[in-house]
Amino acid sequence: MRTKIKKCLADTLSRIVTAYLMFFSTGLGICVYAQDGQMSIKQLNAIFYGNGTNINRSETECLKLLETNSAPSDKAMVYLAIANKYANNDLIYPAKTAEYCKLALEYPQGIVNICHLYSMWGGALESQYNTNLNNIEYYLKVRRTFIKPYLDALAIIATNRVPEKRQPLPSVGMYDYSGPKTNAIYQEMVKKHDKQVIEREEVDLENDLITYRDQITAEIARHYERKLDNLDELREMALQEFNNNTNAVEELMQRVEKIISQSSHP
Q1: CB 16 within 8 A of CB 60
Q2: For 256-262, which contacts have Cβ atoms below 8 Å and span 24 or more sequence positions?
Q3: Which residues are CB-neighbours of 90 under 8 A, at least 6 positions away?
Q4: How many whole angstroms separate alpha carbon 136 and alpha carbon 152?
Q5: Any idea where the domains of the chain sit in the sequence?
Q6: Cys staple from 37: which of 71, 80, 81, 220, with CB 3.0 to 4.6 Å?
Q7: Is pLDDT above 60 for 209?
Q8: 69 and 18 in contact (C-beta within 8 Å)?
Q9: What is the pLDDT of residues 51-95, one digit of tens each?
Q10: What is the value of pTM for the model shown?
Q11: Residue 94 and residue 124 in contact, taking contact as beta carbons nearer than 8 Å
């Protein structure tokens, strides 16, 4: 039922998770999994909190860490952290946000991080090109540029076949046991608990992807909601980004058209 999700989750759980770096630039917690590197989350936290609003100094100090911590997971963590920091000031630093989103995506990231990075990248490009969006000719020319990262995120989500709506998280029962760990009863309790944890994380991951799918789809619809817009352009781009997965493209188009039909804009 959740083959793709299970594989993604299994790949993640098979690594040694040494850190969670939490940001809330979109209201969602972003997890960074350190796999093969030595980067300490405390180092990054110290840099960002120590420098306050001085983003440029934080960027310099974070990059300096890579001189001695250069494993792919270290780079993934640092570039994602910097991208998040700049994204909080997108209107001021859109080029920097786009730059670090692109860099972060060149290194191993979890699927939720990938969606988050593509979403930030699209928003950054939109901010970067917003100087003359009232010029229809210019807008139609640059729109494809910032729609592409949004579609890249949706293409990733489409391969996982998530449900239509967010699901309640399955409960994880607690257990209390005193005795040898070799006892069959204890081992069965642990096995049941571990199974519940995995099932909960599967649904939690699906819910994150559903949230990104809905947010990004709404963002795309916003750019195609005027009467003068032709959705053929979007369908053409989606077919390319979705590797001609026509079912996924049609699902996207239906969602976009539904949002547009419910919009109060003329």
Answers
A1: no
A2: 256/217, 256/220, 256/221, 256/224, 256/231, 257/231, 259/217, 259/218, 259/221, 259/225, 260/221, 260/224, 260/225
A3: 97, 120, 123, 124, 127
A4: 25
A5: 3-262
A6: 71
A7: yes
A8: no
A9: 556 788 888 888 888 888 788 888 898 899 899 888 887 668 899
A10: 0.79
A11: yes
